[in-house]
Amino acid sequence: MNNQQLESSSLSNSSSWLSIIGWVGVISLFLIIVLIAYYPNRPPAIGEENIKVRLERLNKVESKQQKIITSYGWVNQTQNIVHIPVKNAAILLVDELEESQPQESKVKAYKPQVIDPNN
Fold it and tell me: What are the residue ranges spanned by the domains of the chain?
């Protein structure tokens, strides 16, 4: 090998190592910036008190909903609107649908046209 070939191979080796070190540095710098930006804005951990408060609220809401769907009561007394249990409402709806007479449809059906591909 002559002197020029040795110099060019050593230059290519050193430039390869420099590019590898550069990319590792860029990635490391990116990760450091992400960590610095993330940690101050991290949401606080949910404490035991918050968990208990949320569970109490959830239980109150669920019991209130269960009471509404299983009991009779006023929705708006001035307009005479009431709520009834869901089971009773389903029975009333089925009875109403069984008693109703089907009406003739106003939708017109047309015979489809067949297009001959040979024409």
Answer: 1-42, 47-100
